[in-house]
Amino acid sequence: MQVIDHNTYEALRAAAQVLEADGSGDKVLRLTDGCILKLFRRKRLLSSALFYPYAQRFANNTRALQQRDIPCPRIIAVYRIPSIARDAVYYSPLAGETIRQLKLAKQDADALRGRLGCFIAQLHEKGVYFRSLHFGNVVLTPENTLGLIDIADLSCQSVPLSQSKRLRNFSHLRRYPEDRQWLLGDDAGQAFFDGYRQGLPAGSQQAPLIERLRQLLG
């Protein structure tokens, strides 16, 4: 993590487009070079972010995903900016459209549901637990592969996820009613379940998991 002074920060963000902000200030900036500067603040005096800053987690997570051949943003630098009490990650965004954008564009819905199910299965098999799993954080790239964005809230392990972790991860898909309706409404969920099954290793004995998944999301 590189410490930069206020003048360097102001030069970096000159003429930037503010993509996201709140009452505490800017959160996400699109810089003039097309890259993103994502700012993190520590919300509590004593928290894990004191020892393991969110910006560094974001950067470390990109490396973990790249090692697993999962498309994600490309890190350029990680900064500490004492003058505004923020840490920041400077990165090249992952090109493409999110699942949420694609479903609104009336893409082939069943094919998209199946691809999403297969992709989530592959994440789970590769030990990726993505707490921010929702349609706005999964991207279909120009190379026609699915990838992840907004990955600060993610963890990776060296073995496939347990059934309990997989089910907890699936519960995140229920947070947005309109997304859940598109994914599962009017028997649409079969394509998603079939896709998840296809993403599992050949011969995998996961029928009980698929049934529990149906019950959880149904």
TrEMBL record:
One Pfam family matching this protein: APH
Domain Aminoglycoside phosphotransferase intervals: 18-125
Matching InterPro entries: Aminoglycoside_PTrfase, Kinase-like_dom_sf
Superkingdom, natural source: Bacteria
Protein name per Swiss-Prot or TrEMBL: Toluene tolerance protein
